[in-house]
Amino acid sequence: MLGRGFIAAAALACALLATTTARAQQTLEAVKARGQLVCGIGTGVAGFGLPDSRGVWQGMDVDLCRGLAVAIFNDANKVRFVPLSSSTRFTALGAGEVDVLFRTSTQTMLRDVTLGLRHVTTYFYDGHGFIVRTGSVQKVAEMRDATICLVQGTTNEQVTADYFRSISTPFRPLLFERTDQATAALQAGRCDSFGTDASQLAGVRSTMAKPADWVILPERFSKEPYGAYIRRDDQQWFDVVRWYTTALIEAEEQGITQANAEEMRRTSPSPNARRLLGVTPELGEALKLDRSWAYNVVRALGNYGEIYDRAFGPETSIDLPRGPNRLWTQGGLIYALPMR
């Protein structure tokens, strides 16, 4: 009797687990049924996501959203952008208002284990810094009693407080909902500095009326690995977003570009390139995507390096060196997991 009862209970538990899993793993199917990806992005930071003069969103996070739409639909226009503030982004994702966040969101332990969300794959490495008026200070430790603009709901709040506490130096935080608000306050003289991740500071500086009046101090005070976020317990969607991001890096590692992807698909003898470009179908089949999903993405938007350069490269007003965002073969931290 005990044995039969245990077996019955175990069978019921397995059935409930299967039902729960099936219910949770619906994002890819929902996106396909809707015919559109809904992507959470920032409210406006040059380099990551900012409308151009025509009102069209441009930047690295925006391109990553478009590329995911290409992987699913082979159409970069099948995406709807939802600008979200730092304080509302995770709530919106958890509530199902967006399918994925590509929004300069750092992976931290507490975010990872308490929000019911998952950081997918790091696509950008950064660190907290400070921007000040040129000639005002040489080091952050000199900013005693300074008023520092910060964006509410970011890791930068805690990083700034932790640092000044560690050197027993008082400061006055001035909190804002959005980066553009903090930037406006800085330029208006309401604060002495703005503290956020260095790449975002570079974007902010590039949009200022007189960029030469401002300098980003060289010190860095944190590790800020950005990655896409999705809702937890959706393994299929996790796989799609993870390997889509990885494919962009893999394409750069293999020298596959927007310009040569078609030729590489026809002529490359490399098994890795042939798998990535869909000459053989196994990668697409494993993700329940078209066999040419990665090829379509590179043809539409380029590889990781091309996306980076379009957002931050020497031809832009930001001109942010790749630093840790170089490939691992070039001394950076960007590394594609094996796609086989």
UniProtKB/TrEMBL annotation:
Keyword set, alphabetical order: Signal, Transport
Residues of the signal peptide: 1-24
InterPro entries to which the protein is assigned, alphabetical: Bact_solute-bind_prot3, Solute-binding_3/MltF_N
Pfam families in UniProt: SBP_bac_3 (PF00497)
Keyword field contains Transcription regulation: no
Chain ranges of the Solute-binding protein family 3/N-terminal domain: 36-264
One GO BP: amino acid transport
Record PANTHER family: AMINO ACID ABC TRANSPORTER PERMEASE, AMINO-ACID ABC TRANSPORTER-BINDING PROTEIN YHDW-RELATED
Similarity field: Belongs to the bacterial solute-binding protein 3 family.
Protein name in UniProt: Amino acid ABC transporter substrate-binding protein, PAAT family
